[in-house]
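Morning!

This is the sequence you dropped in the shared folder:
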Amino acid sequence: MRILYLEDNAQDADLVRIELRKRAPDIQLEVVSTLTEALARLERFHVTYGTSLKTAGVVLANEGAPPRYDLVLTDLNLPDGSGKTLLARVRSQHLPLPVVVLTGSGSEDVLVELLRAGADDYIIKRHNFTETLALVLRAALDRFQTETFRRAATLKVLYVEPNAYDIDLTKRELASIAPHLHIESLQHAEQVLDCFEGSDPKLVTDVLLLDYRLPGASATDVIKELCQVRGLDLPIILVTGQGDEEIARQSLKLGAADYVVKSSGYLQRLPTVIENVWLRAESTRRERVLLEERTRLSLATEAAAIGIWEWNTATGGIIWDDNMYEIYGVPRECPITYEIWKSYVHPDDLAEQEVKLRRIVAQKGQEQLDFRILRAHETVRYLHVAQTATWDTSNKELRVIGTNIDITEHKQAELAIRQHAKQQGLIAAFGQQALASTDLGELWNQVAAVASQGLDIDFCKILLITLDGHSFILKAGSGWQEGWIGRQICTLDENTQNRFVLMSGEPVIVEDFRTETRFTPSEILRTHDIRSGVNVLISGADGPTGVLGAYSHDTLHFTPASVSFLQSLANVLAAAINRKSAEERLTYLAQFDPLTGLPNRSLFLDRLGQAMEQAQRNHGRIGVVFADLDRFKIVNDTMGHGTGDRLLVQVAQRLQRCVRSGDTVARLGGDEFAFILSSLAHAEDATLVAEKVITALSLPFELEGQEIYISASLGISIYPGDGTDADGLLRNADTAMFQAKEQGPAIYQFYLPQMNERAVARLKLETQLRGALARREFVLHYQPKVSLVSGKITGFEALLRWRHPALGLVPPFQFISVLEDTGLIVSVGEWVVLTVCEQIGKWQNQGLVPHPVSVNLSARQFQQQDLDMVIGKTLEVTGIDPRLLEFELTESVLMKEAETAANALQNLKAFGVQISMDDFGTGYSSLAYLKRFPLDVLKIDRTFIRDVTTDPDDATIAVAMIKLAHSLGLKVVAEGVETREQLDFLVQHGCDEMQGYYFSRPLPLESASQVLMEGHRLLMN
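The structure's back. Tokens below.
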């Protein structure tokens, strides 16, 4: 507070300054000794700050700007005038300053005159007037500011008066004497009730001024409805006539705040009545809010366990509220003294707490601090204390007042955060070490040390499952007596926490082994008097590896945070184990086949090289056998790759039993195996192994409840005659294997030099074939089929030809098998089907009578998983009649997997195409399956037609085939008809169609189109 103090007596001025500095240091005095100087200061104040109680929006920024006074204190009698003059100047200029007058006279007339002149208060200069001076000044400033703010605030007044003249008179009078009152008017009681219907009364008006006589309803009825029925919080003033004071008094009982009687001069008194009523209402509201706030504060302090206390330093008395007793765990009947309080403070924190208390008392300041107590002299709790020192109202006793809050949970969380940060640092450091280290033994010991440091414990152990999977061994640890590391701790059958963690995969905390009922502590825990522990699983890529545990002599030592830290260490350790296992696995995979466990190609060649070096020194012989399984792809495609893998494992086991212990069996990839036969006395000795292999694989394999038969084709090369390096020796054995495969299944073949020439030629042919389709080197020739009844052309067979850019037309027998072996037959076969369908469409567009065209499906094509999808899409794209497309499959292809073939044929037949069995009679048809196959045509192989006129057996067979086919409702086509005698025989015995050189060779597209257009036919007679 800043005060302009006008005092001509220097001794009085010093006395006031000293006392205020001691009792109210926040009050600053600016003393002037003459009225002239005081008036000058006020003039500058007026120019700078105006008449608003608030500081002017723009204040002169120069250093000479006058101070902003809050109050004027003036002596009454001055040498150059009177304090009344200063008071008059403040009031005439409406300066926002309260004025307090100092006077030596106690005359009531003088004091009343000062107050009437506008003084806010007065002080009589008696011997002890300075003791209450600060209180008077503060009270005067508070009253002035309250009154000023109140006068500055506009009050809304709703005046209900049926007389328009009275309304107008009231408005005009109040506008002149109380402009801060804003008057609105109504004339009927119903209007009043409607006005407050559902509305907040404070939004409508601040004060309701109600005339006692209203049309429609009485004023008392309106008051009762608003106050009692609707319960509105609204100050109401009743305006009555003279003689109606009793009505006014009754209205007070109903809820009115005051009343005013229409008598002479009542309008001059009315503003004061309105303001007082409004102030009482506001005061009541504030008290209600304050009470609610106090209630909420009490509830909040109780809910938040905030204790409030006061310590009288003079008497030593201490006052506690109920929460303080609860926080300290002190019986409520116990009187609190300083010594009793000290007994509850943690001994380690008492000295610091007393120092801070003495400092607060000495400096009369305030302090906040945290310290520990022993609640009920037992449990450690953390408290936060805010305390301040203050004098009592008489300034004679210094009191320390404070609040206590139990912050134990917060402190524990804070300590947990620090502990967590420490643990994260340890985990990160251990993770880096685990990443860099290749020594798992070192990591075992390191993880034990990190766990002990991170959890502040003395005991840690790493248990690993033994190789037999029956027990745990203590691999590493800390804190245990000598001799325990490396020992078996417990078995997996014992009911320990280790077994629980291993079986459930979940961590477990034991709070106290002495009271634990779920598990039995192992011998090592009993020996070391372990009370509590925590265990987590160490789980590697291949499953559980072991258990990581931490232990303590104390109970309740471990928390879920302990589990998290320990599990993180276990995860890092497991990652290191996995990395080590992966390195060993990579080393293994670099040399061994992961499926069969046999050496792979790399290790095979390495061992072969070593064996050749030894044989060279000893002038010995080495045999290399290359084996390729026959019909393995059929097993893989029909029964799935999983079954194929299991078959390879069984094959590997049988092959290992076919060689000596010093020999090597390897899997080179897919269904290819190889042998190193060391120290052969004679080259022919390799045949013994080859025959063993063929015999071993001839026995059935049991897979998926079925017996499966396979065989192998073997090629043999001998060192040193067939090669002097490992790659060359293996390559030559591979070449010999291909020669064996061409001769039939279950054959072995020794390498011969000329085999390489054929192999090179075949490789060259394969290379050229791979780009033939893209280069459009494949063409189709069409061989007509002729009716043996009418002699007309009934269709064609599309035959694949390769027009080599240098060799010309290559015979099919030279390249079809290569297409089959390489798998190129699938894409080439799709091209054949598409080309045939497109050509059928072109012939139709040329106006030619369409005839069916047959296409040969190879075994590889027929085994396609999506064959029916490819055929369906081709028919959809070309749009031809499906009956004009015929597929020919050989008897051997269909009967290899008869059941699967029957299903596949049904899928093709669903499109409406024709199905033909080619080369009938050359295989091993089952009549039962022949009946189930959805066939349309049976083609008799040329081997039976060739000698049909000279060999009675062939003739008999041919006739039987024709009759069999007709009995099954099938059309019969004879292949390879080259003579008139063969033709006549077939006509005689009812064959339906023929195909052969007697009528036409396979024709290029142009020639085939020409015979169609010219209507070529077979002369029957």
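Headline: The CA atoms of residues 782 and 1003 lie 5 Å apart.

More detail when I'm at my desk.
O.
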